[in-house]
Write a structure and sequence with these properties.
This protein is mostly helical. The protein is about 80% helix and about 0% strand.
Length: about 120
């Protein structure tokens, strides 16, 4: 069985988000934005995992579309944390690359799956 790259990357990303949340709440004493980041950033992997057991192709698309929205929201919270100086350039660049990569992977999977449905 081959590795599910988006599943693995989103799980590893969720771990990084949890650690970033811990850092922001303990070191920076930032609770509101970091909680939003925690929710959206961990939801990405949860929805990808849920899509693995979708009841149909349409259900798969629906669950991955939610993961896509959560990934996009996570990018927003990261940008906001950077713009408000809770994250420095290095911290931001380090994690935004992963967030955007996961967003692109999900978008690609969605496009491919939708094309398969249309071409049937």
């Amino acid at each position: 069985m081959r590795e599910n790259i988006v599943n693995t990357k989103s799980f590893e990303f969720a771990i990084r988000i949890v650690k970033l949340y811990q850092y922001l709440s303990v070191e920076k004493r930032e609770y509101i934005l970091s909680k939003q980041l925690l929710r959206s950033g961990t939801s990405v992997g949860a929805m990808i995992r849920e899509s693995e057991h979708a009841e149909s192709k349409l259900d798969f698309i629906h669950k991955l579309a939610i993961a896509q929205k959560e990934a996009n929201e996570t990018v927003y919270w990261l940008q906001l944390l950077k713009a408000t100086n809770y994250l420095n350039d290095k911290e931001y660049e380090n994690i935004i690359i992963d967030a955007v990569e996961i967003l692109k992977l999900i978008t690609s999977i969605l496009k491919t799956t939708k094309a398969q449905i249309i071409n049937k």
